[in-house]
TrEMBL record:
Keywords: Membrane, Transmembrane, Transmembrane helix
Recorded GO CC terms: membrane
One Gene Ontology biological process: carbohydrate metabolic process
Record-linked Pfam families: Polysacc_deac_1
Cross-referenced Gene3D superfamilies: Glycoside hydrolase/deacetylase
Protein origin, superkingdom: Bacteria
Bilayer-crossing regions: 12-31
Protein name: Polysaccharide deacetylase
NodB homology domain ranges (all copies): 56-236
GO molecular function: hydrolase activity, acting on carbon-nitrogen (but not peptide) bonds
Length: 253
Protein backbone atom coordinates (compact mmCIF):
# COMPACT_ATOMS: atom_id res chain seq x y z
CA UNK A 1 0.00 0.00 0.00
CA UNK A 2 2.84 2.38 0.81
CA UNK A 3 4.41 1.67 -2.58
CA UNK A 4 1.08 2.46 -4.23
CA UNK A 5 1.00 5.96 -2.72
CA UNK A 6 4.67 6.64 -3.43
CA UNK A 7 4.15 5.62 -7.04
CA UNK A 8 1.22 7.96 -7.43
CA UNK A 9 3.05 10.79 -5.72
CA UNK A 10 5.80 10.46 -8.29
CA UNK A 11 3.24 10.34 -11.08
CA UNK A 12 1.57 13.48 -9.75
CA UNK A 13 4.93 15.24 -9.57
CA UNK A 14 5.74 14.19 -13.14
CA UNK A 15 2.36 15.37 -14.40
CA UNK A 16 2.79 18.68 -12.58
CA UNK A 17 6.16 19.22 -14.24
CA UNK A 18 4.67 18.39 -17.64
CA UNK A 19 1.84 20.87 -17.12
CA UNK A 20 4.25 23.60 -16.00
CA UNK A 21 6.48 22.94 -19.00
CA UNK A 22 3.48 23.11 -21.33
CA UNK A 23 2.44 26.49 -19.97
CA UNK A 24 6.01 27.77 -20.27
CA UNK A 25 6.24 26.59 -23.87
CA UNK A 26 2.94 28.26 -24.69
CA UNK A 27 4.31 31.45 -23.19
CA UNK A 28 7.12 31.51 -25.73
CA UNK A 29 4.73 32.21 -28.58
CA UNK A 30 3.21 35.47 -29.67
CA UNK A 31 -0.09 34.91 -31.41
CA UNK A 32 -1.91 37.58 -33.39
CA UNK A 33 -5.14 37.17 -31.51
CA UNK A 34 -3.56 37.81 -28.12
CA UNK A 35 -3.42 41.36 -26.87
CA UNK A 36 0.24 41.71 -25.89
CA UNK A 37 3.53 39.90 -26.08
CA UNK A 38 3.80 37.18 -23.46
CA UNK A 39 7.45 36.21 -23.82
CA UNK A 40 10.46 38.31 -22.94
CA UNK A 41 14.10 37.56 -22.33
CA UNK A 42 16.71 39.63 -20.49
CA UNK A 43 19.31 38.46 -23.01
CA UNK A 44 19.09 39.04 -26.72
CA UNK A 45 16.46 40.79 -28.86
CA UNK A 46 12.95 41.41 -27.64
CA UNK A 47 9.76 42.32 -29.45
CA UNK A 48 8.53 45.89 -29.08
CA UNK A 49 4.85 46.30 -28.28
CA UNK A 50 4.54 49.33 -26.00
CA UNK A 51 6.67 52.30 -25.02
CA UNK A 52 7.42 53.06 -21.40
CA UNK A 53 6.59 56.75 -21.54
CA UNK A 54 4.45 59.32 -19.77
CA UNK A 55 3.79 61.18 -23.03
CA UNK A 56 0.24 60.62 -24.25
CA UNK A 57 1.33 59.32 -27.63
CA UNK A 58 0.24 56.18 -29.44
CA UNK A 59 1.05 54.56 -32.79
CA UNK A 60 -1.53 53.42 -35.34
CA UNK A 61 -0.37 50.33 -37.25
CA UNK A 62 -1.99 48.48 -40.16
CA UNK A 63 -1.33 44.99 -41.56
CA UNK A 64 -1.95 44.33 -45.26
CA UNK A 65 -1.71 40.98 -47.03
CA UNK A 66 -4.28 41.08 -49.83
CA UNK A 67 -6.63 43.31 -51.81
CA UNK A 68 -6.53 47.01 -52.69
CA UNK A 69 -10.04 48.27 -51.98
CA UNK A 70 -9.75 49.07 -48.25
CA UNK A 71 -6.40 50.82 -48.17
CA UNK A 72 -7.44 53.94 -50.11
CA UNK A 73 -10.29 54.94 -47.75
CA UNK A 74 -7.98 54.38 -44.77
CA UNK A 75 -5.27 56.60 -46.27
CA UNK A 76 -7.89 59.27 -46.99
CA UNK A 77 -9.13 59.19 -43.39
CA UNK A 78 -5.60 59.55 -42.04
CA UNK A 79 -5.16 62.60 -44.30
CA UNK A 80 -8.50 64.10 -43.31
CA UNK A 81 -7.78 63.61 -39.61
CA UNK A 82 -4.23 64.96 -40.03
CA UNK A 83 -2.57 61.79 -38.81
CA UNK A 84 0.60 62.41 -40.78
CA UNK A 85 2.52 59.29 -39.82
CA UNK A 86 1.34 55.71 -39.29
CA UNK A 87 3.00 52.32 -39.76
CA UNK A 88 1.93 49.89 -42.48
CA UNK A 89 3.23 46.32 -42.37
CA UNK A 90 2.83 44.81 -45.82
CA UNK A 91 3.36 41.33 -47.20
CA UNK A 92 5.95 41.64 -49.96
CA UNK A 93 4.02 39.25 -52.21
CA UNK A 94 1.12 41.71 -51.92
CA UNK A 95 3.49 44.61 -52.60
CA UNK A 96 4.58 42.94 -55.84
CA UNK A 97 0.96 42.89 -57.01
CA UNK A 98 0.22 46.47 -55.95
CA UNK A 99 3.47 48.45 -56.28
CA UNK A 100 1.65 51.73 -56.92
CA UNK A 101 -0.27 51.38 -53.66
CA UNK A 102 2.97 50.76 -51.76
CA UNK A 103 4.49 53.90 -53.27
CA UNK A 104 1.37 55.90 -52.42
CA UNK A 105 1.54 54.82 -48.77
CA UNK A 106 5.08 56.13 -48.59
CA UNK A 107 4.29 59.32 -50.52
CA UNK A 108 1.57 60.12 -48.00
CA UNK A 109 4.20 60.12 -45.26
CA UNK A 110 3.74 56.72 -43.67
CA UNK A 111 6.34 54.10 -42.77
CA UNK A 112 6.37 50.73 -44.52
CA UNK A 113 7.50 47.69 -42.57
CA UNK A 114 7.76 44.05 -43.55
CA UNK A 115 5.01 41.52 -42.96
CA UNK A 116 7.14 38.81 -44.55
CA UNK A 117 6.94 37.69 -48.16
CA UNK A 118 4.56 34.77 -47.97
CA UNK A 119 1.81 35.09 -45.42
CA UNK A 120 2.87 31.95 -43.54
CA UNK A 121 3.52 31.23 -39.87
CA UNK A 122 7.29 31.51 -39.31
CA UNK A 123 7.21 29.28 -36.24
CA UNK A 124 6.40 26.28 -38.44
CA UNK A 125 9.43 26.84 -40.72
CA UNK A 126 13.11 26.00 -40.40
CA UNK A 127 15.72 28.76 -40.09
CA UNK A 128 16.81 28.77 -43.72
CA UNK A 129 13.27 29.11 -45.04
CA UNK A 130 12.60 32.00 -42.66
CA UNK A 131 15.81 33.80 -43.68
CA UNK A 132 14.92 33.38 -47.34
CA UNK A 133 11.44 34.83 -46.77
CA UNK A 134 12.81 37.78 -44.78
CA UNK A 135 15.48 38.52 -47.40
CA UNK A 136 12.99 38.31 -50.26
CA UNK A 137 10.70 40.75 -48.48
CA UNK A 138 13.60 43.11 -47.75
CA UNK A 139 14.69 43.15 -51.38
CA UNK A 140 11.23 43.81 -52.80
CA UNK A 141 10.26 46.53 -50.32
CA UNK A 142 13.65 48.21 -50.70
CA UNK A 143 13.25 48.33 -54.48
CA UNK A 144 9.71 49.71 -54.27
CA UNK A 145 10.29 52.34 -51.60
CA UNK A 146 13.98 53.18 -51.91
CA UNK A 147 14.43 52.44 -48.20
CA UNK A 148 15.44 49.22 -46.51
CA UNK A 149 12.72 48.18 -44.04
CA UNK A 150 13.90 47.80 -40.46
CA UNK A 151 10.63 46.87 -38.75
CA UNK A 152 9.11 43.39 -39.03
CA UNK A 153 5.72 42.15 -37.94
CA UNK A 154 5.83 38.40 -38.59
CA UNK A 155 2.91 36.88 -40.50
CA UNK A 156 -0.01 36.09 -38.20
CA UNK A 157 1.87 37.92 -35.46
CA UNK A 158 3.33 34.56 -34.42
CA UNK A 159 6.93 34.27 -33.28
CA UNK A 160 9.20 32.92 -30.59
CA UNK A 161 12.74 33.47 -29.34
CA UNK A 162 14.19 31.78 -32.43
CA UNK A 163 12.34 34.17 -34.74
CA UNK A 164 13.50 37.15 -32.67
CA UNK A 165 17.13 36.10 -33.09
CA UNK A 166 16.77 35.43 -36.83
CA UNK A 167 15.07 38.79 -37.37
CA UNK A 168 17.77 40.59 -35.41
CA UNK A 169 20.48 39.03 -37.57
CA UNK A 170 18.61 40.24 -40.67
CA UNK A 171 18.57 43.80 -39.31
CA UNK A 172 14.94 43.79 -38.18
CA UNK A 173 13.22 44.86 -34.98
CA UNK A 174 10.12 42.74 -34.33
CA UNK A 175 7.00 44.82 -33.69
CA UNK A 176 3.97 43.45 -31.89
CA UNK A 177 1.09 45.45 -30.40
CA UNK A 178 -0.50 46.23 -27.06
CA UNK A 179 -4.01 47.08 -28.30
CA UNK A 180 -5.81 44.79 -30.74
CA UNK A 181 -8.78 46.31 -32.58
CA UNK A 182 -9.93 42.82 -33.64
CA UNK A 183 -11.23 44.45 -36.80
CA UNK A 184 -10.43 41.25 -38.72
CA UNK A 185 -13.48 39.74 -37.02
CA UNK A 186 -15.74 42.45 -38.50
CA UNK A 187 -17.52 42.69 -35.13
CA UNK A 188 -19.20 46.04 -35.83
CA UNK A 189 -17.98 49.63 -35.62
CA UNK A 190 -18.90 50.07 -31.95
CA UNK A 191 -17.08 46.87 -30.99
CA UNK A 192 -13.91 48.03 -32.75
CA UNK A 193 -14.05 51.42 -31.05
CA UNK A 194 -14.67 49.83 -27.65
CA UNK A 195 -11.78 47.41 -28.14
CA UNK A 196 -9.45 50.40 -28.42
CA UNK A 197 -10.50 53.66 -26.80
CA UNK A 198 -11.25 52.57 -23.19
CA UNK A 199 -8.09 50.43 -23.04
CA UNK A 200 -5.53 52.77 -24.60
CA UNK A 201 -2.78 54.29 -22.48
CA UNK A 202 0.46 56.16 -23.15
CA UNK A 203 2.88 54.39 -25.48
CA UNK A 204 0.42 51.87 -26.91
CA UNK A 205 0.84 50.29 -30.34
CA UNK A 206 -2.62 49.82 -31.87
CA UNK A 207 -3.28 47.04 -34.38
CA UNK A 208 -5.59 47.52 -37.37
CA UNK A 209 -5.81 45.77 -40.72
CA UNK A 210 -6.16 47.25 -44.20
CA UNK A 211 -6.76 44.12 -46.27
CA UNK A 212 -10.00 43.65 -48.16
CA UNK A 213 -11.24 41.19 -45.54
CA UNK A 214 -11.92 44.03 -43.08
CA UNK A 215 -15.24 45.71 -43.80
CA UNK A 216 -15.59 48.17 -40.91
CA UNK A 217 -12.12 49.54 -40.16
CA UNK A 218 -12.54 52.62 -42.35
CA UNK A 219 -15.78 53.42 -40.52
CA UNK A 220 -14.38 52.91 -37.02
CA UNK A 221 -11.03 54.63 -37.62
CA UNK A 222 -12.23 58.27 -37.64
CA UNK A 223 -14.23 57.67 -34.46
CA UNK A 224 -11.20 56.12 -32.76
CA UNK A 225 -8.98 59.02 -33.79
CA UNK A 226 -11.46 61.64 -32.58
CA UNK A 227 -12.14 59.92 -29.25
CA UNK A 228 -8.46 59.33 -28.50
CA UNK A 229 -7.69 62.96 -29.28
CA UNK A 230 -10.55 63.91 -26.99
CA UNK A 231 -8.73 62.04 -24.22
CA UNK A 232 -5.54 63.98 -24.90
CA UNK A 233 -3.67 61.48 -27.08
CA UNK A 234 -1.60 62.35 -30.13
CA UNK A 235 -0.34 60.05 -32.86
CA UNK A 236 3.23 59.14 -33.68
CA UNK A 237 5.18 56.28 -35.26
CA UNK A 238 6.45 53.05 -33.79
CA UNK A 239 9.98 54.32 -34.43
CA UNK A 240 9.38 57.40 -32.29
CA UNK A 241 7.89 55.31 -29.50
CA UNK A 242 10.92 53.02 -29.62
CA UNK A 243 13.27 56.00 -29.53
CA UNK A 244 11.51 57.47 -26.50
CA UNK A 245 11.75 54.15 -24.69
CA UNK A 246 15.46 53.80 -25.50
CA UNK A 247 16.06 57.36 -24.35
CA UNK A 248 14.32 56.76 -21.04
CA UNK A 249 16.24 53.52 -20.49
CA UNK A 250 19.53 55.30 -21.17
CA UNK A 251 18.64 58.00 -18.66
CA UNK A 252 17.86 55.38 -16.02
CA UNK A 253 21.23 53.71 -16.58
Amino acid sequence: MNFFWIFHAKRIKQLSLIIIAAFFTAGLLYVERTQIAVFSTPDGPQAFYKAETDDKQVALTFNISWGENRIEPILDILDQKEVDHANFFVSASWAERYPDVVKEIKERGHTIGSHGYQYKDYTSWDDEKIRKDMNQSTQILSELTGDKPTLLRPPNGSFDKRILNLADKQGYSVIHWSINSKDYQNPGVDAIVNAIVPKTSSGDVILFHASDSVKQTHKALPIVIDQLRGKGFSFTTVEDLMASTISENEEIK
